[in-house]
What we know:
It comes from Brachybacterium huguangmaarense. This protein is an alpha/beta fold. It has helices at 17-23, 28-31, 33-36, 54-63, 75-87, 124-133, 158-173, 180-190, 208-224, 226-233, 239-253, and strands at residues 45-48, 68-72, 93-96, 109-115, 135-146, 152-154, 195-205, 259-270.
Amino acid sequence: MSDATVHPHAYTHGYAPAVLGGHRRRSAANSASYLLAHLRPGQRLLDVGSGAGTITADLARAVAPGSVTAVEVSEEAAALTRAELERQGIAAEVIVADAHALPFPDHAFNVVHAHQVLQHVADPVAMLVELRRVTVPGGIVAVRDADYPGFRWYPDEPRMDRWLELYLQAAEANGGHPDAGRRLLAWAHAAGLEDVEPGASTWCYATPEDRAWWADSWAGRISATALAAQLVREGRAEQAELDAIAGAWRAWATDPDGWFLVPHGEIIARA
């Protein structure tokens, strides 16, 4: 194994139940509230990196009777979006495409949205240039990404420190940018977006129910998903260590003082 090993375009999390269970809890209210005030009935909206489809469905309702198009990087991921939209009775086009080279004409959409996507792509600035291209003049490019190095939790737990260290290594080896949240404004400026409204928001897990859910998700991700397989395959950790980290997550969840903060950067940019 070499720390220089890079696997561009690999999706670090994968699509195991532990991952999808977390993604399906996302909604426009808890993950795109900064955008909602800008949405109007009749708009044409593009959702890039639609994933589990729950945010896509909420955005579709906000712009109805406008149209919604969703883009994913693989047929496996696109099928997840289609299934959720069908379950909720939402009509939308879902296609597979590269976010660096979207198959749409210039100025095709009033609003283009991407949630937790720039952290995973090979060239975030090139993607933002492309998002701007397909947005009508004066339309909105809305992007939100987490900042993993900024995660904070209490009580301190060395095995959770190790969890974050391992995740950062894996994400960077996959060509990702796990500190994307703090870079969004700079990337937007580099992409030629000048009218940019920057912001930030957080997810906080501190109630017993939220701690149990968050810990169960990450315990599963670190020990039994594509992330775990990558860490073992590349020699970054042994399975026994990953299982111990999963145990630390579950122990943290039982602490009545347990608290976890996930910071996000956000931008609303006018094309």
